[in-house]
Amino acid sequence: MQEIIRVDGLTKRFKLPHERINSLKSSLINLFSNGRLNYEIQTVLDDISFKVNKGDFFGIVGKNGSGKSTLLKLLAGIYYPTNGSVQVDGKVTPFIELGVGFNPELSGRDNVFLNGALLGFTRKQMEVMYDDIVAFSELERFMDQKLKNYSSGMQVRLAFSIAIKAQGDILILDEVLAVGDESFQRKCFNYFDQVKKEKKTVILVTHDMSSIKRFCNNGILLDKGKIIASGNPQEISSGYEKLNEV
Amino acid sequence: MLNKIFSKQNRALTRELVITDFKLKYQGSVLGYVWSLLKPLLLFIILYIVFIKFLKIGNGIPHYPIYLLLGIILWNFFSDLTLQGLTSVVGRGDLIRKVKIPRWIIVFSSSISALITFMLNFTVVIAFMIFSNVSVNWNVLWLPLYLLEIYIFASGISLFLAAAYVKFRDIGYIWEVVLQAGFYLTPILYPLSKISNISFQKLIITNPVAQVVQGMRYSLITKETITSERIFNSGLYSLAPFVIVVVVFGLGAIYFKKQARYFAENI
């Protein structure tokens, strides 16, 4: 098996200011009190290590506040590690959320092109894909309307339709299943089946254990910034259920 | 390395960000893009009335109204670029927190927006030049270099300000004061010849913005402009503004690069 992501002793700490320090005065005061009074250090991820192989459908599970989102941001390269390293052999889709950069004042069409550029597409590439994206989202009639007039479901559909076109060897999906109605979920599942067939590497963050069991072949369970179970999806989901019982 | 910096993706992203900027800037206004031309036009009328008819400051300088207008749009370019740069990173916090895009592109695209606005303003200056028969000579070839100089200077400052603004919001207020002081310390509204003390003249022209403003006026409008070459007799010291530009850009870029890693968590 070819390794595609290797995480080694990854630690991420945040300085949490008690009062947000973003003026010179408060930073001067902070300087004189040696900074001890004004912030505490929170360790969000504590020395975690794991590997993801090429073609894995990798699940990351954990309760709220366990460090999942921070881990994703580190994998995507949005955050920089405090300690340890993240080595990625390939291109990670650069977003961790659907519809990043969507602007309510722009038309659906303009938003598609802006979002595409954020995902690393040129305008020409987007023009080729545009009809496909619109067709998949079933929003043909609304593309010239401003995004603020879309319902939230419509926005998600549009965002998802663009996102699945994103190239990259590693796909990061954060809680995509938490939004949208049943037919949208079915669309997601069909899409998961398809990428699984294509042997793309997917990292899925979700609270939905049935989809972990259905799609994932590997994964980790996070609790308070540490890995408490890894590997078998069955074990992970039963570990997660145990966590929730307490 | 340049290939990597100006890769297809980066160019496409810059383009979309700039287009978005302009679409949002003029949305909801009836005249839209026309305002980019109307603004300098109206400004010209005011300048003409106050400085030519009322104050008669520019006596002895040919085409003084155009001379003034050029100075002002150059200053506006500098001030727009740095002010937009300052807020660019914080203003695009939503992107920074959620997508991995090269951080500098956000500052870069805001600088391109300012550059486009300047170009539109500049066409108005050219129109007035043609209208009042300003004779153009070979010095006009220096123009792109002057523009490049002020662009690089302003971009270096923007990079520093954008990164510092993430941590210290006071920077915004400080910079506004600096800009206001700079406006009066640069020979925009008054000709440099009105300052009789040569040491002050030297000090003022060492500011790259002043050097560019005077240089562009000299090469575009009239030889009756005091340039840095004239003040420093083309000595070694006349290189000072260029050295400042390079140093400022270098320091700004280094600081930005160092801070950029932590933008996502600090915003």
Question: Which descriptors would you attach to this protein?
Answer:
heterodimer; A: 246 residues; alpha/beta; Rossmann fold; 2 domains; 5-stranded mixed β-sheet; 3-stranded antiparallel β-sheet; 8 strands; 26% strand; B: 267 residues; mainly alpha; 13 helices
Notes on the protein architecture:
The complex is a heterodimer of chains A (about 250) and B (about 270). Chain A is an alpha/beta fold. In chain A, the strands form two sheets. Chain A has a five-stranded mixed sheet with strand order 5-6-3-7-8, sandwiched between helices. Chain A has a three-stranded antiparallel sheet with strand order 2-1-4, covered by helices on one side. The longest helix of chain A has 16 residues, at about 180-195. In chain A, β7 and β8 form a beta hairpin. Chain A contains eight helices and eight strands. Chain A folds into two domains: about 1-10 and about 50-95 and about 170-245, 3-Layer(aba) Sandwich (Rossmann fold), CATH 3.40.50.300; about 100-165. Chain A is globular and about 55 Å long. With about 270 residues, chain B is mainly alpha-helical. Chain B has one domain (about 20-265). Chain B is about 75% helix and about 0% strand. Chain B has 13 helices and no strands. Chain B has helices spanning about 1-5, 10-25, 35-55, 65-90, 95-100, 105-130, 145-165, 170-185, 200-205, 210-220, 230, 240-260, 265. In chain B, α4 packs across α10 (about 210-220) and α7 packs antiparallel against α10.
